[in-house]
Amino acid sequence: xxxxxxxxxxxxxxxxxxxxxxxxxxxxxxxxxxxxxxxxxxxxxxxxxxxxxxxxxxxxxxxxxxxxxxxxxxxxxxxxxxxxxxxxxxxxxxxxxxxxxxxxxxxxxxxxxxxxxxxxxxxxxxxxxxxxxxxxxxxxxxxxxxxxxxxxxxxxxxxxxxxxxxxxxxxxxxxxxxxxxxxxxxxxxxxxxxxxxxxxxxxxxxxxxxxxxxxxxxxxxxxxxxxxxxxxxxxxxxxxxxxxxxxxxxxxxxxxxxxxxxxxxxxxxxxxxxxxxxxxxxxxxxxxxxxxxxxxxxxxxxxxxxxxxxxxxxxxxxxxxxxxxxxxxxxxxxxxxx
Length: 338
What we know:
Elements: H1 18-30, H2 38-50, H3 52-68, H4 74-84, H5 90-105, H6 116-122, E1 125-126, E2 133-136, E3 142-145, E4 150-155, E5 160-172, E6 182-186, E7 189-193, E8 197-202, E9 207-213, E10 215-220, E11 228-231, E12 234-239, E13 242-248, E14 260-267, H7 268-275, E15 282-285, E16 293-299, H8 303-314, E17 316-322, E18 328-334
Parallel strand pairs: 5-6, 15-18
Antiparallel strand pairs: 1-4, 2-3, 3-5, 4-5, 5-8, 6-7, 7-10, 8-9, 9-12, 10-11, 12-13, 14-16, 17-18
């Protein structure tokens, strides 16, 4: 596999044991949280000094640091994704393995189970963080891609297939398909359109499908016998083992196609996570205020203004911090009592 334009092999990357590289990246993620505790900095420095491999691993991270802030590389997206996943979770461990592949192997040295960042980077259709894109396919189908979305096209004489690698898309199927089925494939299975308008969002470990017109047949990857047809006005969660959480589709959740998020009593922490999909900044809040409720319509292209509005409306303090690795972090917390 060819190296990307930002990746340059260095002596620091050669021969670093995978477990050392992954620990170095764990340190990187720990240093994302601001402010960094003095004890964390001391432990990090002690780790670097404990073995030459540790220092070589960290020098490799520093060697690509300058490139990440100016280029839309898969590493910067992978770092942001990893930093937002819960510590000690399976998703966090997988994100670190992916980062190790990108930073130390350039996409060629190590084999990992999943390779979404590389697939995203090479996808037929993709959007960056904060971007939306509309297009018309050869059969007349209309797609709207949400922020940080990657899709591969696989149209043939037998079928019209989209492979959703990451992100979210809104589909209105065209009528010039010549009888070929229209399929959206995700990691968990297939969503087969039955003449429809519907949305598909790839989450970690599951797919969310919402149907607004017509119907969609959901086929779990490992349980095809448990396929289920969703009708207009329904939404469900698709896993590799089945279909569950069938409920009412909320079309206001598709307001992103018009550049806004519509919230109806959404938890503050959940709202910040949703808004955070549209910005390279990290958005978070203190645990004590995470349960406060947010309602209203908010533009996805101006997170600074949205954070300021929320702070004023909820009586919170908004802190803008510079992160250790570069970039910014908004943090909402309760206002100290006088």
